[in-house]
Design brief:
This protein is α/β, with parallel strands linked by helices. It contains 6 helices and 8 strands; from the N terminus they run αβαβαβαββαβββα. It has a single domain, classed as 3-Layer(aba) Sandwich (Glutaredoxin), CATH 3.40.30.10.
């Protein structure tokens, strides 16, 4: 009887060890921002988001705000290695996507786009945009929660920041919604609904105003 108990304890110890190793591997699965193409979207975004959050950065190289956000995402990827970060040129994802409508950040989970964040290429997204700002912006969506629970799937917001100094001389660093940010419904659906013929078409513009 004693031999069976010892065998059981040995098996349990090995199982627990393997489980801890698997957990550690899951926590350190990614750690970088990966470049993808349009043909990779289903595999690297929809499929990969079945068991973790996938953050997709739509960018253009010539836009400074995209470069700033890129740097922040690299830092975030190193800190949260269980999350998957990818980037793709906006016009590679959606044909004719306007340069003044980037950067854009899509948040995917369970194979679906849960949240979308739109940024302006104006002075409000300056070089003082920090990793702490980005964390503050993303935390309400629940992507850092161990349970990976989601919030309202219809939420959208701008990630421009107002870094004005308040009356006490302190930097507010509070999220500031844009009053001029508009996207057409075709552009919103094209990038994440897997339509191979998705294009930006101003003639089909159905404005979504974020105030």
């Amino acid at each position: 009887m004693r031999e069976y108990v010892l065998l059981f304890l040995l098996c349990k110890s090995r199982f627990d060890h393997m489980f801890r190793l698997k957990e550690a591997q899951e926590r350190n699965r990614y750690g970088t921002v990966e470049n993808i193409g349009r043909e990779d979207w289903m595999r690297e975004v929809n499929d990969a988001s079945q068991d973790t959050w996938v953050l997709v950065h739509l960018y253009e190289d010539c836009i400074e705000a995209c470069q700033i956000l890129d740097a922040m995402l690299v830092g975030l990827a190193k800190e949260y290695r269980a999350l998957k970060f990818v980037r793709i040129r906006a016009r590679a994802a959606v044909e004719n996507w306007p340069e003044d409508k980037v950067p854009v950040l899509f948040l995917y989970y369970h194979g679906e786009m849960k949240h979308q964040l739109f940024g302006h290429t104006d002075r409000r997204l300056r070089t003082d945009f920090t990793l702490a700002n980005l964390k503050q912006l993303l935390t309400p969506f629940g992507i850092f929660d161990s349970t990976n629970t989601t919030t309202d799937s219809s939420r959208s917001k701008s990630f421009c920041y107002n870094s004005d100094i308040n009356s006490d001389g302190e930097d507010n660093h509070q999220p500031r919604r844009s009053s001029k940010l508009r996207f057409s419904s075709s552009a919103r659906s094209g990038a994440y609904d897997k339509h191979d013929d998705a294009t930006w078409d101003k003639s089909e513009d159905e404005d979504i105003l974020i105030q």
